[in-house]
Amino acid sequence: MILDNLPATPKRPGRWLELGLLVLAAIIVLLSAAAVELSQGNTLTVDLMYIFGGFLAIFGVAHIAVRIWAPWADELILPVVALLNGLGLVVIHRLYLGELKDGTSPDGAVFRHLFSNPGFSVEKQLMWTVIGVVLLVAVLLLLRDYRALGHYAYILGLLGVVLMVLPLFWPAAINADAKLWISIGPFTVQPSEFSKILLLIFMAKLLSTKRSQFNTEGYRFFGLQFPRMRDLMPILLVWALAMLIMAVANDFGPALLLFATILGMIYIASGRASWLLIGVVLIGIGGTVVYQFSDKIQTRVSNFIDPLATFDTTGRQLAEGLFGMSWGGMTGTGLGNGYPQDIPVVESDFILAAVGEELGLVGLAAVLLLFAVLVTRGFGAAMQVPDNFGKLLAAGLALIIALQLFVVVGGITAILPMTGLTTPFMSAGGSSLMSNYILVALLLAISSYANCPPELRPGQKELQRDKASARKADAADAEVMS
Question: Is 150 exposed, middle or buried (0-12, 13-18, 19+ CB in 10 A)?
Fold first, then answer.
């Protein structure tokens, strides 16, 4: 009788919504690729169906992995990421075809061009997409319980610092204008893309264990409660490290993004607006000092103020981007009917300008809404997960995507100086894509834990098994007594 009253084990969700949205994302990518081909005067062939099938195969594997190892995760995260990645592939391919215009483009459909470009190309981005999905699957497979990361947080933090400064000392570093890349054989890697995740894990653990330190009462000034000087040391150390990297690497994008994200995590942990004020002051001081010694940063600020003044040189990228988005207007020129390829390095840090030109404000707003869904789902996981480490880690991962997108959009619209940061999941480049898929895997793991019934969470099955054994023993004793 006692065993009959035991609650039934909750059924694992089928994740059919996720699968349906992935199919919808594949259809959107297919139609977008077809529009690009038609705009270039190419004939639609069966080759386009390989795009549809390949897209479904890649993210079908990701769907199966999530269904097995993160079955309770939010069902919107993976489809949104897949659609953003797919649209990025379409835009990159369109930009490649644009560079082959004026009689240089070979005849035929997508796959005639696929493996012929020595520079940026959709086949390279496809390769990085596959590697990114493999990393996502690997993280879900190996990291059954994200809380295990907390046990290695300080080691991971040290590794993150090493990766952040590695290009400064790497013998094969690529130092064209900023020391951010290293060369490993035929590949180039940006270690800071991976270090940011490791450092966020470290800060989430530090803030969850030392939260009282950031809430300790200090000095009250103009209605704000400021921390004691010794409690400022963690943020001052991060600030000093960020300033040092900015100065030596001759670039302020990655370091500024990391500092702003950590500052946001401290505000989330403490709830004190004074931390934000302190951070703004520190950014202002550090930025002013670095500006005095960096010609590159001075040039970016000058271009931000008046890109037309240096249109023939360093200001052309921003000016062309603004011209293109202005021409696109509300509805855009149509995929393949604009000239975004005239924007220097458009496939990387200005890919959203290409979207704005050919899909207009409506299309660009739709892309931004997709990012908004991803960010809000990340914060939703942070609110639902029960432990402080998971809350802060999920919030930090969502926040770094939001801040990166804000900086990128601010840069292409001349609201902020350009930082060289790329658009997550869309811009050409392997380091960013791989690190962002690791980030998504962590969000999925945290979301699955948050939505999972308490009795099925990692570590609870053994407890439930022991309780069931005890109940069986009690039932057996009761039968003997009767």
Answer: buried
**DSSP secondary-structure letter at 345?**
T
* DSSP H or E segment with residue 295: helix 295-305
What would the two tokens of residue 313 be? 């040189």
- pLDDT < 70 regions, the chain: 1-9, 99-120, 171-179, 212-226, 228-229, 231, 247, 249, 459-482
Identify whether the C-beta of residue 47 lies closer than 8 Å to the C-beta of residue 69.
Answer: no
Return the amino acid letter for 47: D
pLDDT of residue 234: 72
Exposed (0-12), middle (13-18) or buried (19+): which is 448, by Cβ within 10 Å?
A: buried
Q: What's the pLDDT at 178?
A: 62
Q: What is the pLDDT of residues 439-462, one digit of tens each?
A: 999 999 999 999 998 877 776 654
Neighbours of 209 (CB within 10 A): 13
Query: 8: which DSSP letter?
Result: P
Beta carbons within 8 Å of 191's beta carbon, 6+ residues apart: 163, 164, 166, 167, 182, 431
**How far is 143 from 127, CA to CA, in rounded Å?**
24
Residues in CB range of 220: below 8 A, 6 or more apart? 226
Enter the tokens of residue 17.
């919504």
Q: What is the end-to-end Cα distance of the chain in Å, rounded?
A: 13
Its sign, for the CA torsion 245, 247, 249, 255, is positive
Cα separation, 225 vs 234, in Å, equals 18
Looking at residue 445, its pLDDT comes to 96
The radius of gyration computed from the CA coordinates of the chain, to the nearest angstrom, equals: 25
Residue 221 DSSP one-character state: E
**Residues 119, 98: contact at Cβ < 8 Å?**
no
3-state SS class at 182: strand
Are the CB atoms for 240 and 165 separated by under 8 Å? Answer: no
The CA distance from 120 to 98, in Å, is 12
The strand pairing partners of 183, in sequence order, are 188
At 110 the three-state DSSP class reads: helix
Residue-wise pLDDT for 321-355, tens only, equals 999 999 999 999 999 899 998 898 898 889 999 99
Q: Using the 8-state DSSP alphabet, how is residue 175 labeled?
A: -
CA distance 355 to 361: 9
Asked if 51 and 117 touch (Cβ cutoff 8 Å), the reply is no
Q: What is the largest CA-CA distance in the chain?
A: 96
Pairing of strands 181-184, 224-226: unpaired
